[in-house]
Amino acid sequence: MAKRIEVSDLDIYYGDFKAVEGVNVAIEPRSITALIGPSGCGKSTFLRSLNRMHEVIPGARVEGKVVMDGQDLYGADVDPVNVRRQIGMVFQRPNPFPTMSIYENVLAGNRLNSKRMKKAEADDVVERSLRGANLWNEVKDRLDRPGSGLSGGQQQRLCIARAIAVEPDVLLMDEPCSALDPISTLAIEDLMTELKDRFTIVIVTHNMQQAARVSESTGFFNLNGVGQPGRLIEFNPTEKIFSNPDEKATEDYISGRFG
Ligand SMILES: Nc1ncnc2c1ncn2[C@@H]1O[C@H](COP(=O)(O)OP(=O)(O)OP(=O)(O)O)[C@@H](O)[C@H]1O
């Protein structure tokens, strides 16, 4: 079930380095939120802080709050593994487990999370997730073949199938199309539009047309200079960001004057 995420006064650190400062934002369920901005402004760092992936880097930490439907994700009693189950992630480069079959790739998250599944139940999860990722028809006759035998776009859809197989509430996507050709990119964009009925989706993208095509809301991150923390400069409906942004820096960025 899609959930709402509220971020308050979030600062994100790598050791002593403050990479992101003072983010306040509400991310709405059943919609796609795009994060744009120049390289190094903290988009990926912010994205990873939403499901506590940030913490896997030694010395990395956050200050402030991330609350999902009333649950403080950084609360003392919260297990980060459980947060990552609720908030799935798809990365820039498709990363299926190369020697694992397509079938087992889809189930990899479920196998980590839970007790044994009956064969019929596992079959059902695999089919449902591959259908959800618009990949079923292309792979249904070769589920026992390695995931690495698929094209880049198919591999990325396999990774999306793996992410949705555990039924998360939120899907984070970090430049999911940057390694893909335009046809595969459109397939993933169509898929995102279908998935937003069931999940809250947050996507980092360098492709402004993509942000404009798929998202309802867009956040523009920027930084004042090297070594300075990134900040969320503007967060608004996507249409407004691309037609009449509140901030001059947003306008300069989207019109290609910098970044
Ligand atoms: N593992 C890390 N350890 C230390 N600093 C890091 C680490 N990852 C990122 N940073 C720093 O944090 C800042 C934000 O990086 P981040 O990757 O979040 O930016 P980004 O906006 O996603 O960039 P890009 O668009 O190039 O992917 C940068 O100064 C970067 O060098």
UniProtKB/TrEMBL annotation:
Gene Ontology terms: cellular component = membrane
Pfam families named among the record's database cross-references? ABC_tran (PF00005)
CDD domains this protein is in?
ABC_PstB_phosphate_transporter
Is Ligase included in the keywords of this UniProt record?
Answer: no
Domain of life of the native organism: Bacteria
Keyword Nucleotide-binding annotated: yes
PANTHER family for the chain: ABC TRANSPORTER I FAMILY MEMBER 17 (PTHR43423:SF1)
The ABC transporter domain extends over 5-248
Q: Which NCBIfam families match?
A: 3a0107s01c2
**What GO biological process terms does the UniProt entry carry, in alphabetical order?**
phosphate ion transmembrane transport
Instruction: Kindly indicate where the leader peptide sits in this chain.
Output: none
Q: Name one GO molecular function term.
A: ATP hydrolysis activity
**Name of protein:** Phosphate transport system ATP-binding protein
Q: Which UniProt keywords apply?
A: ATP-binding, Nucleotide-binding, Translocase, Transport
